[in-house]
């Protein structure tokens, strides 16, 4: 596998990609130049203009003739010789990452990583949100891994990589429903298999707009996707959580935590626990 790369202005990149598509070159990507901004419920971003970006073309072949062919097409489009070609030795689908120590007796790591004195969640990141690196994910994991979910049903809203679902399944949940608007089934099934789990079902669809059907009531419901999203999901959450069930909310920033939780309490909940790491807040509420 080879990577062809060239530095170009971001304002030109879409036009160049369109011309590459016409020439049957589809594996193109670049990182948009972003400026992080702060908003009411957390962080957003704006895309910068007139910044240089590195456009990359992935050639999924070791045939150098094909590489040279695609390089020439790119050169003719951008009218420049300043193009780099790199052979990629590691073409594994999984993204490698350093083991994550949750400092509670548990580590998130690849199956190859040896652990002698702690428990381990086997995990490969494959691109979905929630690898265990973010403060909110780690705080949720510490709560989950301190619980015993025997005979409990869990709903994980916005599951992303499925790491919270996998932790719940490891902690003996009877059923874990991993819900996401994107199809993350392959990734979750793969990481579930690494931990010998068979108690996770993946639900794909837009729950707010009744795009999916849920057939269970849940003892625990998680939502770790932000304050505004939490407010939007409250009617759905209320329809699936059991009386006296536990709602775990994370992804909240300290400057809007009180406003979001005040809204949640109106649905018949009682705040039981709040934790905070840096500006990120996580809490547990009980359904009254």
TrEMBL record:
Transmembrane stretches, start-end:
none
Q: What InterPro entries does the record point to?
A: Ribosomal_L11_MeTrfase_PrmA, SAM-dependent_MTases_sf
Question: GO cellular component annotations, sorted alphabetically?
Answer: ribosome
**Signal in keyword set:** no
Annotated GO biological process = methylation
Q: Which GO terms describe its molecular function?
A: protein methyltransferase activity
Under the heading Gene3D superfamilies, the entry gives: Vaccinia Virus protein VP39
User: What are the entry keywords?
Assistant: Methyltransferase, Ribonucleoprotein, Ribosomal protein, Transferase
Which domain of life does this protein belong to?
Bacteria
Recorded hits in SUPFAM superfamilies, A to Z, give: S-adenosyl-L-methionine-dependent methyltransferases (SSF53335)
Under which name does UniProt file this protein? [LSU ribosomal protein L11P]-lysine N-methyltransferase
Per the UniProt record, the source organism is Clostridium cavendishii DSM 21758
């Amino acid at each position: 596998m080879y990577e062809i790369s060239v530095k170009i202005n971001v304002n030109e990149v879409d036009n160049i990609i369109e011309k590459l598509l016409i020439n049957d070159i589809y594996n193109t990507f670049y990182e948009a130049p972003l400026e992080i901004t702060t908003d009411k419920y957390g962080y957003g971003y704006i895309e910068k203009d007139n910044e240089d970006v590195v456009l990359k073309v992935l050639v999924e072949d070791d045939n150098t003739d094909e590489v040279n062919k695609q390089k020439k097409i790119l050169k003719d489009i951008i009218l420049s010789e300043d193009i780099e070609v790199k052979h990629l030795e590691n073409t594994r689908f999984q993204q490698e990452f350093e083991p994550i120590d949750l400092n509670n007796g548990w580590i998130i790591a690849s199956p190859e990583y040896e652990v002698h004195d702690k428990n381990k969640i086997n995990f490969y990141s494959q691109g979905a949100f929630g690898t265990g690196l973010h403060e909110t994910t780690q705080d949720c994991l510490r709560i989950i891994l301190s619980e015993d979910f025997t005979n409990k049903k869990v709903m994980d809203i916005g599951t992303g990589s499925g790491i919270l679902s996998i932790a719940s399944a490891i902690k003996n949940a009877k059923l874990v429903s991993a819900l996401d608007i994107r199809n993350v089934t392959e990734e979750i099934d793969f990481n579930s298999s690494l931990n010998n789990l068979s108690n996770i079902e993946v639900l794909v669809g837009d729950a707010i707009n009744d795009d999916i059907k849920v057939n269970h009531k849940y003892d625990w419901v998680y939502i770790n996707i932000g304050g505004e999203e939490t407010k939007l999901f409250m009617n759905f959450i209320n329809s699936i959580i059991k009386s006296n069930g536990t709602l775990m909310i994370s992804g909240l920033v300290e400057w809007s935590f009180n406003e979001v939780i005040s809204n949640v309490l109106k649905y018949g909940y009682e705040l039981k626990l709040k934790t905070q790491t840096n500006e990120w807040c996580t809490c547990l509420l009980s359904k009254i």
